[in-house]
Design a protein that fits this description.
It contains 6 helices and 19 strands. The protein is α+β, with helices and mostly antiparallel strands.
């Protein structure tokens, strides 16, 4: 299997030097903003891990100053992560649902429900990995109406024993740094900015994990960023690909979740993955951004341009 560690581009499992992220307070968010804006990520580099299905590993995706600011924004707001449970056909598409195994009519997927939820698989249900359904209110209503007509179970946000982390959802206009990170997501995925869902900051303490899950057929792309080094554990494992990504501060991994395009897209179950628990006494901080197949907001007032230094 391949293991990507702190040394980008090397197919090995390196153990980064342990780090203890500083304590952050809401008051630090404003204080850290200037430093984050002055020191953006630069020299972002990517290496293709897999051409099919598509997976790319990045170094330098966020700077140390940006990480400090993002964690300051999250401090004091942590809530238990949720998953969204609903019909497998609605969350994963017909073919994607069919790979869930006998009797798997419902699924839990990542971020399929209301903001702040994820989805995971359970007996008779499907749950998809992710921290919220994303999507505009109108798009949700369209899907609910179509689901009722087809007898599909409406997705519901639930806490799950399969997902034990904590999370904070950041608003689009909460900080210029948030918009800047979303701009990078749009650039590396090749999707318009308006398709990026809200950023989710995640915290895994020792023993916490997210069991095998998928991010959902409504999300063609995922970008997961690691905000700190973890000396032991905390890897993101893709069992079908034989790939395991080790947390290293500032790195990110991007992958494609679906086969097909648009409303006909279906979950590529080769991209099922899990978040392994950090080692004893350790904490893992991460940030995930899902790219939705439908626009999430109006971005006509925002223009993306290359930043100095390659950010």
């Amino acid at each position: 299997s391949l293991c990507f560690g702190q040394a980008f581009g090397q197919e090995r499992c390196s153990v980064p030097r342990p780090s203890s992220p500083p304590l952050h307070t809401p008051a630090m968010a404003d204080a850290s903003l200037a430093a984050a804006l002055e020191h953006p990520a630069s020299h972002i580099k990517g290496q293709v891990v897999s051409q099919e299905p598509k997976m790319v590993h990045f170094t330098g995706f966020v700077s140390r100053e940006e990480v400090a600011h993002l964690l300051a924004l999250a401090e004091g707001r942590w809530t238990p992560s949720k998953v969204t449970r609903g019909s497998a056909s609605a969350l994963l598409g017909k073919k994607g649902a069919g790979m869930g195994g006998p009797g798997s009519s419902l699924e839990e997927v990542t971020g399929m429900g209301a903001p702040g939820s994820t989805v995971e698989a359970a007996s008779g249900d499907e749950e998809v990995g992710g921290m919220g359904m994303g999507g505009s209110a109108s798009s949700h209503e369209e899907e609910r109406s179509a689901g009722k007509e087809q007898g599909v179970v409406e997705p519901t946000d639930v806490q799950s024993e399969d997902c034990t982390s904590s999370m904070v959802m950041l608003g689009y206009e909460e900080s210029p740094v948030v918009e800047r990170v979303l701009g990078r997501v749009a650039t590396v995925t090749g999707y318009p900015l308006e398709h990026a869902e809200q950023l989710l900051i995640l915290r895994y303490t020792s023993g916490q994990r997210f069991n095998i899950h998928h991010d959902g057929a409504m999300r063609p792309m995922t970008v997961f960023t690691y905000l700190n080094d973890v000396a032991e554990g905390g890897e993101t494992r893709f069992p079908h690909l034989g790939v395991q990504v080790k947390p290293a501060a500032g790195t990110a991994v991007m992958w494609r979740n679906t086969v097909g395009e648009g409303e006909d897209a279906e979950a590529d179950r080769r991209m099922d993955h899990e978040a392994l628990p950090p080692g004893e006494g350790l904490v893992k901080f991460g940030m995930v951004c899902f790219v939705n197949r439908r626009p999430q907001r109006d971005c006509s007032h925002i223009a993306l341009r290359p930043a100095q230094g390659g950010a």
